[in-house]
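note to self: dont lose this again. the chain is below, predicted strucutre after it. 87 aa total, dont forget to put it in the shared folder this time
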Amino acid sequence: MATKSQVQVQLQANAVELFNRYHKYTGTSPEVYITQLVEQTLPTVAAMVDAMDEASKQPDKDIDVMALFGKKMAEHALTQQNIALSQ
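---
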């Protein structure tokens, strides 16, 4: 279970070399890149967890979690779009 606000990521040697090259051109550190990647994919994780939560509330029914996931992804996308439009 996640209990920390920071995590340590072990990169393979080829990933380190690639991030070093990327940093040379963009000035973006691996930490910033990975943080932004995680933040941008949180709606996907939230949609999957929401779908699993909803499916687990009805364990006796044959629930299509992937259909729920698609519905939740659409809901999260609309929320993100509304936030972007209001800014």
